[in-house]
Amino acid sequence: xxxxxxxxxxxxxxxxxxxxxxxxxxxxxxxxxxxxxxxxxxxxxxxxxxxxxxxxxxxxxxxxxxxxxxxxxxxxxxxxxxxxxxxxxxxxxxxxxxxxxxxxxxxxxxxxxxxxxxxxxxxxxxxxxxxxxxxxxxxxxxxxxxxxxxxxxxxxxxxxxxxxxxxxxxxxxxxxxxxxxxxxxxxxxxxxxxxxxxxxxxxxxxxxxxxxxxxxxxxxxxxxx
Amino acid sequence: xxxxxxxxxxxxxxxxxxxxxxxxxxxxxxxxxxxxxxxxxxxxxxxxxxxxxxxxxxxxxxxxxxxxxxxxxxxxxxxxxxxxxxxxxxxxxxxxxxxxxxxxxxxxxxxxxxxxxxxxxxxxxxxxxxxxxxxxxxxxxxxxxxxxxxxxxxxxxxxxxxxxxxxxxxxxxxxxxxxxxxxxxxxxxxxxxxxxxxxxxxxxxxxxxxxxxxxxxxxxxxxxx
DNA sequence: TTTAAAATATGATATTTGTCATAGTTTAAG
DNA sequence: CTTAAACTATGACAAATATCATATTTTAAA
Lengths: 225, 225
Prior knowledge:
The structure is a homodimer of 225-residue chains. By secondary structure, chain A is α+β, with helices and mostly antiparallel strands.
């Protein structure tokens, strides 16, 4: 039986601000789940009723647009918490979460976390700090979406994934996304992504092997206009 | 000398969760300022070192894009707080604030607010809730930017301003923005805004009088494709 | 392994949006 | 009230991106 107190993952998120006693309580009420690749974790409009702590794997947070396309708003990985926003705002979630790889998560029920948010100001300040950081990142995304070309946004998405999630031994991006997923990050048509990736290949900025992508020239990709 | 305890504006923001004693303390350390239309309140990269409570007027929060254009990320009005994010994250602000009308604001120094964030969990939860709401709105903006046409985004910007800030007696939008400001909300060229507004006029969706805009057909504007 | 389904690739073309040029209008300073 | 500066307006054209069609490759199921 896993134990929050000794869980390494906790170091990377706000749960590190909980006291020993609080962690023991959380440990007792949490449930662990394995989630398969492609599986929906929660859907837009649902009551999430708690917080997920990601022990292993990667998932995408998406929002359905009026035109029927999904927009990927954030990628969530090992160490991250998920679900705090709707927890705090007491509303149904505005995002869907879908696993992009096999995942291990722990689910902590709402009222247990709320106890700590109300009683432990270190913890609530830590959550507040993470949310302020998310908001800052969201500002950057808004500016990029509004002001940059599809080409630039794709280059940045690749660099972001490289920087944030790293590469395998062969230098391939560790996060493997379909062209459609990239389209849903960048906000464009799948064909446009395919076209631009082909161009990047011709320009020796990247190489691909099936769905896997390897960035060959980080600097040049950063200079894309 | 104005007094936070009796200030009506407080009802609209997180300061309503402060106790009587805390309000009296805040009242004693705050400074009131008048800000002229067009004046910069703080600039991207500055240390804000406190929180602004807007007593009167409207301002825009902008972020400079790599291509040299400003992006308007949020409009802040009477009743709103401004500066919480950088306060909490202990970083310089990522946004600039510029008055769009004559403004009355109160400035509360950082360490006074931090005391309350640490000591009053009702207050910190309230701030947290507001930030979660901002984040949810940011998600919507990202999806709109990514998936909708310039035309649709402009229609939505007009509707948003109508809904959020209301109209004058003559039915004109109360917030008066230049075409360039609209371009910086929507993320497009100023000429595109001018063109689309002209089209909206031809289609009897709006009328204009100088910079003032009046929405004539709310429903049709909402149906813009 | 075979085969159907899904994903990727690419061409042709339409649509949207950006850029540059220039003219008219409004606003605010003197 | 006058006038320069700022803003709004519109045309012509270029560039970026979307859409539709179709071929090829990859993936995963039988």
